Amino acid sequence: MDKVRAENDLKPASEPSAVLLRELVAHLRQNREQLREEWVYRINETELLQAMTREEIFAEATSVYDSYVEALETRTLETLQAYAQNLSERIIPRGVETHEVVGIVLLLRDVLARSLFAKYQTNPKLLNDVLDAYEPAANSIAITVAVGFVRERERVIREQQEAIRELSTPVLPVRERLLILPIIGLIDPLRARQVTEQLLRGVRAHRAKVVVIDITGVGSLDVKVANHLVLTVEAARLLGARVIVTGLSPEIANTLVNIGVDLGKMSTVGDLQGGIEEAERLLGYKVIPATPGPA
Amino acid sequence: MPIRPATSDDRVVPADGDARVDVARDTDIVLARQLGRRLALDLGFSAGDATLVATAISELARNILMYAGAGEVWLKGLRQGERYGILVEARDRGPGIPDVQQALRDGYSTSNRLGLGLPGVRRLMDEFSIESGPGAGTIVRVKMWDR
Amino acid sequence: MNDEPGNRGSGMGVPILKQGNYLIASIQSALSDADLLELRDALVERVGRYRARGVIIDVTALDVLDSFATRILSDSAHMIRLRGARTVIVGIQPEVASSMAYMGLTLPGIWTALDLEEGVAHLDAHAHTTRNV
After folding, report:
1. Is C101 on the interface with B (CB under 8 A)?
2. Gap from A205 CA to chain B (nearest CA, Å)
3. For a designed S-S bond to C119, which of A131, A177, B87, C56 qualifies (C-beta 3.0 to 4.6 A apart)?
4. Mean pLDDT along residues C66-81
């Protein structure tokens, strides 16, 4: 999780600036209903937040508005950050996207800025001072909300990817001390690392002494992935487990050896069934043939 | 000899989000890699990746000690668009590596030969670069990115 | 069991316990290079002193096993072998194993097992063979 750094808080204002900000905050509180309504109107006009109903938009707008003003008032972003995080957690599953969140925050900034223009237009110098106080704060707020949203989105995406990867490489404990890892589909280097991780965790969790990795279902096996397989075998040995690779067709095996992959470091058996039998033999199980032998 | 705790060490200097560990004795290797692991975890790396990073740091710091006597390990969190990463930079002003290509050749075979370990570190990390020359010191930069 | 005077920890405090004919070294935390060397020497000395038949080095608590540590563990096993005992390294963490494999540090010829229980079982099973280290 990202830590809140003190530098993220709004910079301390000079005394006159602080006074102006207090006045500004009071103004924003006084005109809350009107400004919020205008903001919501603009949101609907630009057709942002399509994924949400009007009632929802209104409710969130209220919370955002209040947090915004509070940030300006207290000159700290912590509450706002927490709210942004919370809001993101709720709206991301609804399909709200980054540009929408950035868009509405900027709209609010604009709505409030205009209201300041309107209020202080008769006094250009004062208007200038007010904007000097308002703008940096408003921009920090916009950034905070946007960043909070993006971070949450990244976190969600990472979790989803992790889940997908785990689903696609299940480690199956079929017998005591024996794991089978059927790999299906293409393996890229990223997935290869994932497979290794899962295999090793599986070895530890199930206290496996033999693992059968079946790659029958793998379309193609390039050099990098093959080397990675060798690494996996070596890593598994460090955890006290032997690895048998099955489903490596003679053609693939030949190609790989020719390219220089050291297949000598792992046991290979033609098919999964054979691999399991070999594994059981290693574990000391008696192997009884499925079909009766010759009479 | 007790291990110096990895906190409030006056040789670890955060600067703009960087952290630097001065490497002058073997306990500094542990310090550097523990710091690296913590930074990696803080950045959001998994425990597994943090271990890879810590291992790489250990090797690089060890090289500094063995071949230059002293040097520094710099650690820095990185951000590139939506992904985050970690940069480890091992610097020394030692005699340099006379034949970098040779050092990078993958000759470890099956022995535990204590070489520079650079091919191994390169395999461990996502990005790897090295600058070195006779009498010119050495800088090794490695990066790991989130997945 | 652990009532012998020489069974205090070595250096940094790596406790070495005697369990029947076996010695069990349980590393508790990160070890510096000097600590590793001390551990090696302590183990070799005790194997001789107690005429141990097997040694288990438990590295569960080590979060990194780099080239030096790997070399020293390997040396330890070889030196212990010269004293007539077999060594098993146990407790290598999955992430550590991955790193070691990437780095080409595979402890060739050194026995490894998942944990203490497996390590003891291995020593028991091979009590009468002399192949390997």
Report:
1. no
2. 16
3. C56
4. 94
